[in-house]
Write a structure and sequence with these properties.
Structural class: alpha/beta
Helix content: 10-25%
Largest sheet: 8 strands, parallel
């Protein structure tokens, strides 16, 4: 939210506009045509213009404030749409109308719905129209879930564990995402998008790693570092130790990252909640300890987890939660909200949509049997 009042500005020349993701990645969003007028907010050296869910920046030198009133059109976020290539935006829903802007390729934008052969969008308080045939309906964002990693899964002790992934396969998957121009999101980006406060690129994916296993720091982090990709790990608080035994990629037990290992990956991997002591499964009752826990004990568990996170880094303010084993108890909803949990994640369910329930956000598990072609699809 920008405190200063909106002004009408006139674009001085064809001007590219950008927005920024949580990790400061710059996203080119649209080219605004010379001579067009929009509502904008002044911020330092930039004008901020709202386009659908996005707040884009242009240099103040590229537009001037003028004495003209624009009655802002309503943005109702009815349909989320994507561009695959640069797409013209027209002044009306008639094919003969003038072009007022060009959406960049790889753009995700909210629309007011269909008007004739066009989708109606809102740019700086004004209505614009993009051809239906050049857009596709947004199917959602893949939030991928990984756990443990090994070398040569077929010879590994974990070869029959579907949640364990061969690190070579992971590297191939990341190479595909990088080659195809995918942006790896923070969960803050996903959160703001779901709140309809931020746009995302069309090619966007969130990488999540449950349990904070030591293989994350030893095997995954170097791959992400090489490719400048980002992710999130959900940490089990009572398994984070001061001293960690040497990493053994052939071990028959899962090793967990300690304080030092987690601190060393924080430039690319954000750290969030996976409970302090509730990551236990009751085989007799076929329920997780989280499901069996009272609201009061869950609150205490979250407080204990917050203390662990402060030991990792005093600046961590965790807002995202992964249910152990994907199991939840609907009676806990109020406790999560009271403890400032903004999103809580399942371990299945497909792509995350802008309308997904905020405490039951779906994810896509990546399993050791998944061929690269299936990952691509």
């Amino acid at each position: 939210t920008y405190a200063s009042a909106q002004e009408t500005v006139k674009i001085e020349k064809d001007t590219p506009a950008y927005f920024y993701l949580h990790n400061n990645q710059e996203v080119k969003y649209i080219i605004l045509k010379r001579g067009e007028t929009y509502l904008a907010t002044s911020e330092d050296l930039n004008w901020i213009i709202e386009i659908g869910n996005a707040k884009v920046h242009i240099d103040k030198l590229d537009a001037k404030s003028i004495n003209e009133e624009i009655i802002p059109a309503q943005n109702n976020n009815k349909v989320q749409i994507l561009t695959n290539e640069p797409t013209p935006v027209y002044a009306s829903h008639r094919k003969s109308s003038r072009q007022i802007a060009t959406l960049n390729n790889n753009t995700r934008i909210s629309s007011n719905g269909v008007k004739g052969y066009f989708y109606e969008i809102v740019i700086g308080g004004r209505l614009g129209y993009v051809p239906i045939k050049e857009m596709q309906v947004d199917a959602g964002v893949p939030v991928l879930i990984y756990h443990h990693f090994v070398e040569n899964i077929h010879k590994s002790y974990f070869r029959n564990n579907i949640s364990v992934v061969d690190i070579e396969h992971f590297e191939q998957q990341m190479a595909f995402l990088k080659k195809e121009g995918y942006t790896t999101l923070s969960l803050k980006d996903v959160d703001l998008w779901m709140q309809k406060k931020q746009a995302l690129p069309a090619k966007a994916v969130a990488l999540t790693f449950d349990d904070a296993n030591l293989s994350l720091e030893k095997m995954v982090y170097p791959i992400l570092k090489e490719k400048n990709m980002h992710g999130t790990t959900f940490v089990i608080g009572n398994r984070v130790k001061e001293e960690t035994p040497p990493f053994n990629s052939e071990a028959k037990i899962v090793q967990f990252a300690g304080f030092k290992e987690l601190q060393s990956v924080m430039d690319l991997i954000e750290i969030e909640h996976h409970t302090y002591a509730l990551h236990v499964y009751n085989d007799t009752l076929k329920r997780s300890q989280l499901q069996l826990t009272s609201a009061r004990d869950l609150h205490y568990d979250i407080l204990q987890m917050n203390e662990v996170l402060k030991q990792i880094d005093p600046n961590i303010q965790a807002k995202y939660y992964s249910y152990p084993y994907g199991k939840f108890n609907k009676n806990h909803e109020e406790t999560f909200i009271e403890n400032n949990i903004s999103l809580a994640f399942l371990n299945k369910g497909g792509k995350t949509k802008i309308t997904s329930p905020r405490l039951y956000v779906p994810r896509i598990p990546v399993q050791n049997s998944m061929p690269l072609e299936q990952f691509k699809s």
